[in-house]
Give the backbone structure.
Amino acid sequence: MTQEDILRHQVAAVSLILVAENILGYSGHVSVRLPGTDRFLIQPVDQSRAGLRPEHLLVCGMDGKSQSSNRARPPSEVFIHTEIFRERPDVNAIAHFHHDLTTTFTLAEGAKLQPIKNHAVRWESGIPTHGDPSHVSSPELGQSLAKTLGPHHAALIRAHGQVVVAENLPALLSDCVHFTENATALYHASILGKVMPLTPTEMDAFRDDFKRDSHATKLWLYFVGKSLSSGVLPADWNGILLPASD
Ligand SMILES: [Zn+2]
């Protein structure tokens, strides 16, 4: 099995898990950079996220065009991925989704999405909001979004959705889960009373003690295992997605 085959299974698995967790819906997409190249894997525009399989994925260039031999087209918002991959060499995996509750933080005057749960320390540098709610359907619109994201690890798109970026697919899955958990927690806390976000001292302490790689692996084992058990992921992906235990 090639590295590309493994990444194809990982993109499909992350997409299916995010659908099962109600983070990814009927629109949105996950991509991964093919290591050492200026190409990436992304699903076709018309393919249901809920039925995505490794062989469906397209190889795309940084022009947003498919290099695969079939006639399937990339999503219209492929330029989210091309322009962030171009601007951010540290980013190897990107998720764009439209999580309704998280999007509400762009809809109410004065609402601000900020880290309130411990794992949200990932976004302590800030969660910028992109003011243009348009579909990111051109390189220029993608460049504008990449500029809004800047050096941060997530951005909101006003009245539209979210972008989360990470160094690999297991870390991306973990980040998407924690990003939406944090938004949900903040929403609920704001109903209960005055919100008490993490202080800089608390964020420092948590970050210094946090092992990002092992945490991402823990969530990967949990969500992949859960999804294999429930049938969300085909059983024969087990040996590809989970390391063999001795
Ligand atoms: Zn979108």
Observations:
- The chain has one domain: 3-231.
- The chain has a mean pLDDT of 96.
